[in-house]
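Supplementary Note 3. Input sequence used for the single-chain structure prediction.
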Amino acid sequence: MTDPRTISKTIDALLDDRGAGKTICPSEVARQLGGDTWRDLMQPVRDVAAERSDAGELEVTRGGEKVDPRNPAGPIRLGRPPRGRTHMKP
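The predicted structure, written as discrete structure tokens, is reproduced below.
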């Protein structure tokens, strides 16, 4: 299993590669780290995203709106939080 630090670094690297204001799918992180068994990493990636979201380091969105990373009710995207954004979709 991949450790949270490696997952976090991979999130950052993918966001850096994508560029400012862009997002990534959690599956991109899992695929990069997990190869053929990437699906096994989806929950650990979501867990790291939730922890980083709680710390204000990462924003979890669905349809462009911030959502609760632990209960997103659908597909999510990961990105760096823009300044001044406070609205969270129910």
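Helices lie at 4-18, 26-34, 42-54. Residues 4-79 form a domain with the Arc Repressor Mutant, subunit A fold (CATH 1.10.10.10).
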